[in-house]
Each structure stands twice: as structure tokens, then as C-alpha cells.
Design a protein that fits this description.
Number of helices: 12
Distance between the termini: 66 Å
Strand order of the largest sheet: 5-4-3-6-8-7
Strand content: 5-15%
Bound molecules: Fe4 H S5, zinc ion
Largest sheet: 6 strands, mixed
Radius of gyration: 20 Å
Length: 317
């Protein structure tokens, strides 16, 4: 297989795009496409300040690399969750994120959840009813809160995450199976900011996971290969497997599923009335972030309960 641009040996063959490229042309193709999507979906401009949520994995580091190369003003945010899983998951991913930032002279904010809130994510999960063995619910709630807080306090215009097409198609598939119209109405490359919440953008949402992985590898980015140990058995992974079977029978199926959804949305398939946010939001009485719950937001209530149980345990011990 030869590169379509220069005729050299291709490093990647993208059957779904009927396109094969050599290393160098692939490394310029992917950022060019990202730039196209940033404009197409009006994600942000070069004058705006972007906060990239980096996990130390391939997608978020590839995204930060691309935005920096394209000349966007992008800082990073790493959230230390305190997850070990026998592989030192959090410590290793933080090391990768910090080395990446240091190597390129980029600014990275690190928020260590245990330091700020008083417990790691797995500890917090074991101390609340929000999933004892599976900390994903506390984790998701905490990450969203921290991202919003850092974006607001730092005056960032947009919060960018490294979600790829496989992630988006799996979320879309899950929401379609349950016809969660509220979630479907809010899913897309851009979620506009409102009431003190930063605009959320996903510049890599049209790239297959293997495309972002190939970019990170060919670019020589040192990222953490391990998934979070708690991701095992997640329904999103089952959905990804189902979609992968579809994709191998019909290359391009995943992309077409996602793009047809965006087109249906553009034509009004999910009217604004189905969006439960942002109407009815008010500032949390404790942290000031927008919430629909009366009084404190669920982040503050959850972490207050974690700290109270932790204190009780320490007293008993
Ligand atoms: S939610 Fe769950 Fe992820 Fe948090 S605990 Fe790990 S798998 S990192 S996206
Ligand atoms: Zn080439
Ligand atoms: Zn709050």
C-alpha cells in the first residue's frame, strides 16, 4: 500500500476513508482535519484560551499536541484520582502528562483529588453509596466538577476533551438503546457554555480510535497504554465491541452512525425542549457551581458525606 500523496510506503491505511498515507503525510493530515472540524463546528478561535483535560492517555495527549502545533492557546489540566489498580495507574499517567508538558514548555495544572478533597476516588467510592466497588460515578462527578472549577477560575473559554469517534459512537449507541432524548440532545462536538459552565468541545470526535493511537505512536508521544483498571466491564466497552463488529463487516459504519446522528440533530430531531439543562440552574450554596439540585450540588453533598464518614471511622479506630 502506497501513500496517496507521495507514493512512499504507507504507514496507515484508513479503509473507511479509502486513504493510505505515509508517516509524514499522516502526521500533517490529522492536524489539518482537526483544524477543519474546529472551524466546521465553531469550537473556538485562536484568540480564545483553551483548557485541555489530559489523562496521560493517547487521545488527550494527541489533542494537546495538535492544538499546540496548530497555534492554539491551550493549557492542560491533569486530575490525580489516586487510582492504583496494581499498575500505579494514576502515578504513571501523571508522570506522562507532566513529562509531555515539560518537554514542550506547556502549562499544566495538576489537581490531586486526595489533597484537595481529603480522599482518593476509590476511597470516596467505598465510603458512599455511590458505587462501592465501581468508583466511576464518584469519579465522573468529581472530574466534571474539577474541570468546570479550573476552567472558570482560570478564565478559560473552552474545555477540550480527547473523546474520539469510538467513544462518541459508543455513547450515542447507549443513549439510543434507552432513547435518552435529553442526553442525545446534548451530545455533539460542542456543548455551549451556560451559567458559569465553560463550553465543552471534542475536536477529535470524528477520528477513529486507531487513528488517534497511530498519531500518538508516529508522533512519538509517550502515553500510558493501560486503561483505568475500573474501565473493565463497563457497558461503554461492550458497546464499543458491538460497534467494532459492525465496523469490520461494513467499514465506515461507526462514522456514518455518528455523522447521521449529527445531521438528524441539525435538522431538529432532538429539539431544545428535550434538553433539561441549562434552564432551572442556580448556584450551589457551597461551591457556587451551577446545579439543578436545591441547596448544595451533588458534588458538594457527596464529598461532605465522604469526609464525615472518614472522620467517623478515624474516631472509632
Ligand atoms: S470513570 Fe471509572 Fe474512568 Fe474514573 S474510575 Fe476509571 S474508568 S477513570 S473514564
Ligand atoms: Zn506520503
Ligand atoms: Zn457545590
Amino acid at each position: 500500500m502506497k501513500c496517496r500523496t507521495c507514493g512512499e510506503r504507507a504507514a496507515i491505511n484508513m479503509r473507511q476513508h479509502k486513504l493510505a498515507l505515509c508517516r509524514d503525510h499522516y502526521l500533517s493530515w490529522l492536524p489539518e482535519q482537526t483544524e477543519r472540524f474546529i472551524h466546521k463546528y465553531a469550537m473556538f478561535t485562536r484568540q480564545e484560551q483553551i483548557l485541555v483535560a489530559v489523562s496521560g492517555g493517547k487521545d488527550s495527549l494527541a489533542l494537546w499536541d495538535i492544538l499546540d502545533r496548530l497555534g492554539y492557546r491551550a493549557d492542560g489540566l491533569y486530575i490525580g484520582l489516586g487510582i492504583d489498580g496494581g499498575v500505579g495507574y494514576s502515578a504513571e499517567s501523571q508522570r506522562r502528562a507532566q513529562a509531555f508538558a515539560a518537554g514542550r514548555g506547556l502549562r499544566l495544572t495538576v489537581v490531586d483529588v486526595a489533597e484537595v478533597e481529603g480522599a482518593t476516588i476509590p476511597e470516596a467510592a467505598s465510603l458512599t453509596h455511590r458505587g462501592r466497588d465501581k468508583p466511576c460515578s464518584v469519579c465522573g462527578l468529581t472530574k466534571r466538577h474539577v474541570m468546570n472549577r479550573v476552567a472558570r477560575d482560570g478564565g478559560y473559554d473552552a474545555l477540550a476533551t480527547g473523546h474520539n469517534l469510538d467513544d462518541e459512537a459508543a455513547t450515542l449507541f447507549g443513549n439510543t438503546l434507552t432513547w435518552s432524548t435529553g442526553y442525545l440532545a446534548r451530545q455533539g462536538p460542542v456543548l455551549p457554555g451556560a451559567d458559569g459552565l465553560a463550553r465543552k468541545v471534542k475536536p477529535l470526535c470524528r477520528f477513529y480510535e486507531r487513528e488517534t493511537a497511530a498519531y500518538a505512536l508516529l508522533r512519538g508521544i509517550d502515553y500510558i497504554y493501560d486503561e483505568c483498571p475500573f474501565a473493565v466491564g463497563a457497558t461503554s466497552i461492550e458497546h464499543k465491541e458491538t460497534l467494532n463488529r459492525l465496523e469490520s463487516a461494513r467499514p465506515g459504519a461507526k462514522l456514518s452512525f455518528y455523522l447521521s446522528f449529527l445531521e438528524a440533530k441539525r435538522r431538529g430531531a432532538f429539539p431544545a425542549a428535550t434538553v433539561d439543562l441549562p434552564s432551572g440552574l442556580h448556584p450551589c450554596s457551597t461551591c457556587g457551581q451551577p446545579t439543578s439540585a436545591p441547596g448544595s450540588c451533588s458534588f458538594c453533598r457527596t464529598w461532605d458525606a465522604v469526609r464525615a464518614r472518614r472522620a467517623e471511622r478515624l474516631t472509632v479506630a
